[in-house]
Automatic annotation (TrEMBL):
Pfam families: DoxX. It is found in: Cell membrane. The keyword Thylakoid does not apply. This is DoxX family protein. It comes from the Bacteria. The keyword Cell membrane applies. It comes from Streptomyces phaeoluteigriseus. The chain crosses the membrane at residues 143-162. It is a multi-pass membrane protein. Keywords: Cell membrane, Membrane, Transmembrane, Transmembrane helix.
Length: 181
């Protein structure tokens, strides 16, 4: 008989809580559930904050949050799930950085907390109360952790970098328009 320890129970709680929050957050984007704006509204918002094309950006963020959250909650493909969620939250954090740290001021506190927890779960693993454990860790190998986090970090750096470039161009265009008046 297998006895689960405090670590397994703690990881289960972290996975269920973080995964559940991420799934709900992504469902707002994808389906408009829980007071969200769906792909159309989220796409318009994404465009307004520099992520283009907006609908594709909303879809990618929604899938990373919903899918990554669901997989984290299940404890399945934990390195990829945690990395995907962490990447989405890094992109969200980039939007909120100008507002400072605290969420009450529109800061990045919330997104950073979710992203760091997801990355921590990717590194730590899901524990024994998980589908990864039940399936013999076939999609939770040690080499997958740096591969998933590295690939996600590279992709996120490119996406956030392109956003920064778009925002600079937009700002320069607005300044030129002011001088022309």
């Amino acid at each position: 008989m297998t006895c689960y320890d405090r670590r397994d129970l703690g990881l289960l709680l972290l996975r269920l809580g973080t995964g559940g929050v991420l799934m709900a957050h992504g469902a707002q984007k994808l389906f408009g559930w829980f007071g969200g704006h769906g792909l159309e509204g989220t796409g318009r918002f994404m465009e307004s904050v520099g992520y283009a094309p907006g609908r594709a950006s909303a879809t990618a963020a929604g899938l990373a949050e919903t899918g990554g959250g669901a997989l984290l909650a299940l404890g399945l493909a934990t390195p990829a799930a945690g990395a995907a969620a962490a990447g989405a939250m890094a992109g969200a954090s980039a939007v909120h950085v100008p507002n400072g740290f605290f969420a009450q001021s529109g800061g990045y506190e919330y997104a950073a907390s979710l992203g760091l927890t997801a990355a921590g779960l990717a590194v730590t693993g899901p524990g024994r109360l998980s589908l990864d454990h039940a399936l013999g860790h076939t999609v939770n190998r040690n080499w997958m952790v740096p591969a998933a986090l590295g690939a996600t970090a590279a992709a996120t750096a490119v996406v956030v970098g392109l956003r920064t470039r778009r925002l600079r161009r937009r700002e320069e265009g607005e300044q030129e328009a002011l001088f022309e008046e």
